Amino acid sequence: MEHVVNIVPGVFPRPERFRIQMAGITYPDRSYHIVRENSDIYCMEFVIEGKGDVTCGEKHVVPVGGDTYILPPHAAHDYRSSITDPYKKIWVNMSGLLCDALYREYHLGESILFKQVPLYPLFERLLELCEHSSDPQAQDIERKASLIIHDIFAQLAQRHLDEHLSSSQNRYAGIIKDMLDRKVEDNINLGVVSKEIGLSISQISRIFTRAYGESPYHYYVSQRIQLATELLNNTGMRIQEIASRLRYADAHYFSTQFSSVIGLSPRQYRDQNATD
Asked: Alpha-carbon distance 133 to 152, whole Å?
């Protein structure tokens, strides 16, 4: 079952610039299936609940409640409800140079699915505008609808950018951690890391802390002290030798940093461990 609002052509006086052909709500229906071989419209839909199965050209996605998808023109559209959990969705079909420009400039063609963007109120406002488009007192539908479309596209673009940055930052966080792990005996600083991976020290600190819950400096010091405890436990190396191996300036500075992390001096730690 569907609630469909067809928009008469005259409502949008410049259809080549922007036009909404129809909008509506689709209610859960296991048999629901739409196919367009070569669409001439943008089909934009927000899934309220349930699950769908959507293909556009070579791209295939499975939207669920809270997701939005955009199927652009000049492509094959094929979308249907899940048989086990048919979706309820609110949608709009539109076209025009404005849609083309926004879609292009916001780089929305990189994906057709945008997950968990809270757009339901905007879709509701858009549908309400369409429902009253033929009322004598209704005015400026084109401007109001185009502003809502612009807002939706802008929010989808921001979510896409946030996801891209998050993925990129997680990748960099892994690179930073791997470098710190490999250089645990070298006593490097963040300046060295900065030069090697091409990020500023502040970016390195922010990205690493967001990913691992502690600063890269704190992590690196902890790893070095962890190695020192293993050398104290499992070798007969003198404290001076351990400090030298870990490239500390002197044994005193090593002992100070060890104590700040462990709560015992290296000698106390070794004695206590030997006693235990």
From this structure: 20
**Any bridge partners for residue 88, and if so which?**
49
Evaluate whether 72 touches 125 at the Cβ level (below 8 Å).
no
172-191 confidence digits (pLDDT tens): 888 999 999 999 999 899 99
Q: What would the pLDDT profile of 14-70 be if each residue is shown by its tens digit?
A: 999 999 999 999 999 999 999 999 999 999 999 999 999 999 999 999 999 999 999
What pLDDT is recorded for position 138? 61
pLDDT value for 210: 84
Beta bridge partners of 240: none
**pLDDT score of 219:** 93
| Model confidence, pTM | 0.63
